[in-house]
Design a protein that fits this description.
Radius of gyration: 16 Å
Distance between the termini: 6 Å
Bound molecules: ligand AR6
Number of strands: 9
Shape: globular
Helix content: 25-40%
CATH superfamily: Leucine Aminopeptidase, subunit E, domain 1
Number of domains: 1
Largest sheet: 9 strands, mixed
CATH class: Alpha Beta
CATH topology: Leucine Aminopeptidase, subunit E, domain 1
Number of helices: 5
């Protein structure tokens, strides 16, 4: 249990964020939806959240994009972020020009309620040994960018598990294992949110997290 201060709320809790009940504080809630399915865990004083939903609705200092090496935009998370964030983000991506697989670059967040978008390039799943370390490296680079900018909160999508075909049950332990390894060390981060699109993604991450926490 080294260095772990672990508090776990029931693995599946349904919380309601109703702006009327909250006296019109909707803009201050970190997720703009009527109902949120999430679980939260505290590791070494840092809150690790699993949240089912749309990443562009999450409020965090940095939102991570599932980008491609050309930073050219696309579907899935990439499409949603550029649509919601506006043209400013793409203009900056064009200036940067590209990003290698397993790495990430930072841009402005445009119209999103975040300070930065970190454009991370996960691997296209091939079934080779390289997949895992490239995926891990994409998460690690984003976490390092968060430290560099002294951020307190960031939100990740499940990198590579859409268009890039990485199986959710294989990607989830890599993503969560990398985040947990990072937040066990001294960090500026106070909250890391994994935003999962749909029930099967949420369940895959919930199961992976339960296994990882049981092992530590
Ligand atoms: N919020 C959270 N998660 C989402 C959202 C959303 N709005 N939309 C999709 N997901 P993907 P990749 C989930 O395809 O596999 C693009 O064309 C989705 O269900 O966005 O890394 C890029 O330009 C899946 O679990 O990213 C690249 O070319 C996960 O997010 C390529 O796709 C990642 O799906 C990158 O592929």
């Amino acid at each position: 249990m080294k260095g772990m201060d672990l508090r776990t709320v029931p693995l599946r809790s349904v919380l309601s964020f109703h702006p009327i009940q909250w006296g019109g504080r909707k803009e201050r809630s970190f997720y703009e939806l009527g109902e949120v399915i999430m679980s939260t865990h505290t590791i070494n004083g840092v809150t690790l959240e699993l949240l089912q939903g749309d990443i562009v609705k999450v409020q965090a200092d940095a939102i991570v994009n599932a980008a491609n090496t050309w930073l050219a935009g696309g579907s899935g998370v990439d499409g949603a972020i550029h649509r919601a964030g506006g043209t400013e983000i793409m203009a900056e991506c064009r200036k940067i020009g590209g990003c290698p697989t397993g790495s990430a670059v930072a841009t402005t967040a445009g119209k999103l309620k975040a300070k930065y978008v970190f454009h991370a390039v996960g691997p296209i799943y091939s079934g080779s040994d390289e997949d895992e370390w490239l995926l891990k490296s994409a998460y690690q680079t984003c976490l390092a960018l968060a430290e560099q900018h002294k951020l307190e909160s960031m939100a990740f999508p499940s990198l590579s598990t859409g268009v890039y075909g990485y199986p959710l049950d294989l990607a989830a332990p890599v993503a969560l294992g990398t985040i947990i390894e990072h937040i066990r060390k001294p960090t500026s981060l106070r909250r890391v949110t994994m935003v999962l699109f749909g029930d099967s993604a949420y369940r895959a991450y919930e199961q992976a997290l339960a296994r990882l926490l049981a092992r530590s």
